[in-house]
Amino acid sequence: MTIKLAVVGLGYWGPNLVRAFNEVSEIGVSALVDADANRLEFAGKIAPHAKRFTSIENMLGEDLNAVVLATPAETHFELGMKVLESGKDLFVEKPITLNYDEAIQLSEFAKKNERVLMVGHLLLYHPAYIETERRLREGGLGALRYLYARRVNLGIVRSCENALWSLAPHDIAVSNWLVGKNAEAVQAVGFSFLQKEIEDVVFYTIKYQDGIIFHGHVSWLDPQKVRELSVIGTEKMAVIDDTAATEKLKIFDRKIETQRQQFTTYGQFLSIQTGDILLPRLPSAEPLKNEAKHFIECVRDRKKPLSDGFSGAKVIKILNALTESLKGKGGWVEI
Q1: Which are the contacts of 246, defined by CB distance < 8 A and separation ≥ 6?
Q2: pLDDT above 70 for 179
Q3: Is the distance from CB of 310 to CB of 177 less than 8 angstroms?
Q4: CB 311 within 8 A of CB 169
């Protein structure tokens, strides 16, 4: 089955999606949609055989299987519903919507009408994160204790959203995936330095079932670019550094045991075990192409995506609760 798809929204991220889907699809991208003629022309150079449209309504009448939506987040619900109602499958960039109820509506509609709905949570298709999830699932790290992430840089400063909504969805989606349990409560504190009431830096915590904790730090006001996740297990620990040119994943054979039979002080009761640092060989595949391939496979084979609408909705539910905590000066908010 040949998959024919359109990309809607050709601003900051859209051309990257055009490139990825154009390279992994059998026939390339079939249609491009944007109200800006200059953006259409630029993306048209990436996918020269694609038909061009200035409105999504005109495109939806075409013989297409799926639509890739990369418009501003506030339009995702309305435009996404139009795509699904037209009988086409939908890939929507993160966040799926800006509130939980709309995310659930989209997901339920897609499920009821047997449409594929996938959310662009890119890191779930990153080789280092995939390998970490595999090791955790197979018990290679032991039981999960906690996770923490830093996603900071100097810029890009946004005026339409704060650092939490701009940066945290990546790590929240990964945390939900790795933990595999429902979040119970969240807490967030943030600070606005550059623009009034738009937080430039946010520190946040998610408490999951069984006491597992995830802590995140996001900022566009930091001297260095950091994209790092640490996963702490009872047997081993993993650190992902996505800014590293090589060795993006390190597995530390380190732990603290509390199984000694005889001790006179608490310090003797604890036994620190340090071993080797493993550098797993990772595929050189580009995460964005992995993501595009996965969507095309799901459309062709009618499979449920790894990052489906309901998983995207869970991310929004957490973001909504974190926003409530921010406004409440850092209090815990139950989910």
Answers
A1: none
A2: yes
A3: no
A4: no
Residue pair 82/315 in contact by the 8 Å Cβ criterion: no
Using one digit for the tens of pLDDT, what is the confidence trace for 96-130? 999 999 999 999 999 999 999 999 999 999 999 99
Could you tell me the fold of the domain covering 5-123+288-303?
Answer: Rossmann fold (3.40.50)
Q: pTM of the predicted model, to two decimals?
A: 0.94
Cα(24)–Cα(28) distance, integer angstroms: 7
Strand pairing class (213-219; 144-154): parallel
| Separation between Cα atoms, residue 5 and residue 304, nearest integer Å | 18
Cα 262 from Cα 250, distance rounded (Å): 34
The rounded distance, in Å, linking the Cα atoms of 266 and 46 is 64
- 294-326 burial by CB neighbour count: b if 16+ within 10 A, else e? bbbebbbeeeebbbbbbbbbbbbbbbbbbbebb
* Dist. CA 321–CA 315, nearest whole Å: 10
| Four-way CATH pick for 124-285+317-334: 3.30.360.10, 3.40.50.720, 3.80.10.10, 1.10.1740.10 | 3.30.360.10
Token pair recorded at residue 208: 């999951």
